[in-house]
Amino acid sequence: MVGVVSAASLLTWGITHNKDVVGSTVDTSENEVGFKPDKERRLSVPGWTYEEKLERRGEGKVFIARTDSVTKIRQGWPYDSETYLSIILSGYEGRGSGVAIELSSGEFDCPLTECFMSFGFDGQTPTKYRLLGANSGDESIKFLSLPREYFINEIKKSSSVEVTTELVGYGNANFKFETNGLAWVY
Description:
Elements: H1 7-12, E1 21-22, E2 41-45, E3 48-55, E4 61-68, E5 73-75, E6 81-83, E7 85-92, E8 96-103, E9 115-121, E10 127-133, E11 141-144, H2 148-157, E12 160-167, E13 171-178
Antiparallel strand pairs: 1-3, 2-3, 3-4, 4-7, 5-6, 7-8, 8-11, 9-10, 9-12, 10-11, 12-13
């Protein structure tokens, strides 16, 4: 499922105000940020996958950039799988950006209402960011609280990011991302 945002992720995204998103056709034509402006499309570049969708209720477009960690961990029972972490940026026409952190399997070990994760940009001292849980109670996805714009700017300037978080039944987990080349204007 690399490079595709799950329906559950989009539907639980707090900033969407509980609106569904759908798309229509795929087109590989690009503008300066990788999109042709009127249809759903997906574009992959090293490190990032970009997607654009129309909101179902006609309130504009959702722009998505996603990158998956280059490191994986092996979890035991009940997940019994290789797990990677994803950073997902979402931009909404005229409504700003959102940031989600999603596990491919397993659960974050922190309360629904508040969670902290450490992000180290380009080998610098890690900074703790506050994240919030999904309204649905899904413990595999968290949403960055403010300052989202600062976080996005740090990712845009960085070539790598290391994330440390706590997982249920695993403890502290470290994930590394290659983030260079992010094209994001939302």
